[in-house]
Amino acid sequence: VPGLAQSWRVSDDGLSIVFRLRPASFAGGRPVTAADVVASLKRARAGRAGPQLRDLMAGITAVSAPLDNVVEIRLSTP
């Protein structure tokens, strides 16, 4: 079930997933951007969101925000 993602596309080789974010705001009203999502995923990969989440993120090799509403996740294996 989509939460923050409006749509997503998996590359043919299965090593990249590109998410287009739906419009969303934080509780204070500031819009959620792809940079915010990237920062959250990087914190999780570093273990600052708990070891279980870090372990789930082990296959991620890179996370980027090529546009304000697009997040790309690169994977080590499909």
Secondary structure blueprint with pairings:
Blueprint: E1 5-10, E2 16-21, H1 34-45, H2 51-56, E3 60-67, E4 70-75
Summarize the structure.
This protein is of the alpha+beta class and 78 residues long. 23% of the residues lie in helices and 33% in strands.
Distance between the termini: 21 Å
Number of helices: 2
Over the alpha carbons, how many angstroms does the gyration radius reach?
13 Å
Number of E strands: 4
Oligomer: single chain
**Roughly what fraction of the amino acids lie in strands?**
25-35%
Mean pLDDT level: 92
What features would you describe in this structure?
The protein has 78 residues and is of the alpha+beta class. The protein has two helices and four strands. A four-stranded antiparallel sheet has the order 1-2-4-3, covered by helices on one side. Strand 3 and strand 4 form a beta hairpin. The longest helix has 12 residues, at 34-45. The model has no long low-confidence stretch (mean pLDDT 92).
Key terms:
alpha+beta, 2 helices
